[in-house]
Amino acid sequence: MYAVIKTGGKQYRVTPGDTLKIETTANENGNIEFADVLAVSAEEGKFESELTGAKVLASVVGTGRGEKILVFKLKRKKQYKKMQGHRQNYVEVKINEILVNGRSFKQEAKTA
Predict the structure, then answer these.
(1) Is the pLDDT confidence value at 41 over 90?
(2) ∠ CA(96), CA(101), CA(33), 5° rounding?
(3) Residue 110: DSSP 8-state
(4) Transmembrane region positions (predicted)?
(5) Which helix (H) or strand (E) holds 20?
(6) Do residues 97 and 105 touch, judged by C-beta distance below 8 A?
(7) With 0-12 CB in 10 A as exposed, 13-18 as middle and 19+ as buried, what is 71?
């Protein structure tokens, strides 16, 4: 069971129980609801045809900043050099549940 969601200009393939880092988004009491669901598959290779009201529920695990990216600009023979750094903020979320067509898919309990 998986779903493809879109957030922050990117698409993610998620299953219940996954944790992923996404761009900073607004959350209510540590819960995030993704309503922009592009595809849902209950079985491998088969997709749901009707996605009205489909959503993915997640909870916030933590926040942070990503690795530093250095941007270096140079115009040779013109004495122009510029170095700039950037760190993107992110929110780490755990996918709890996928809702589609009145059905709910949650993480299965692991058996040892």
Answers:
(1) no
(2) 35
(3) P
(4) none
(5) strand 19-23
(6) yes
(7) exposed
One-letter amino acid at 55 equals K
Cβ neighbours of residue 86 under 8 Å, at least 6 residues apart? Answer: 68, 69, 71
Q: Is 66 helix (H, G, I), strand (E, B) or coil?
A: coil
pTM of the model: 0.78
Torsion of CA 6, 11, 17, 23, to 10 degrees: -80
Q: Which helix (H) or strand (E) holds 71?
A: strand 69-75
d(CA 15, CA 98): 8
Q: How many C-beta atoms lie closer than 10 Å to residue 33's C-beta?
A: 11
Residues near 70 by beta carbon (within 8 Å), at least 6 away in sequence: 83, 84, 85
* Amino acid at site 4: V
Query: Is residue 57 within 8 Å of 97, Cβ to Cβ?
Result: yes
Kindly indicate the confidence band of residue 79, based on its pLDDT and cuts at 50, 70 and 90. Answer: very high
Spatial separation of the C-alpha atoms in residues 33 and 106, rounded to whole Å: 15
